[in-house]
Amino acid sequence: MVISAHRPCKGTGRPALADYVGVHVSQIRRYEAGESTPTLDVLRKLAIALSVSADTLVFDTDERGPDEELRLQFEATMRLSEDEKRAVKLMIESILLRHEAGRWAA
Fold it and tell me: What is the per-residue burial (b if ≥16 Cβ within 10 Å, else e) of 25-35?
């Protein structure tokens, strides 16, 4: 878990984070060392305290989201009109459905 990567950025020490989350400071150390896994409730509180998504705490950088080329293209869609965004969404959905259908047929 990448708590330790975000905690210093927020200027949050282990004791303050532990108090906010409602666990002992030694438990924060265990989470950071990967020796223990927080409950969903604790994970939610950690994400709120560190102002990040739970995905950011759970997944490595390369485990979620599109690759860099697709990320840039998705960012470019922000400049499109609502109608154009709907068209892009429909095209993506149709490609994904076709892909899934091919997986089931195999």
Answer: eebbeebbeee
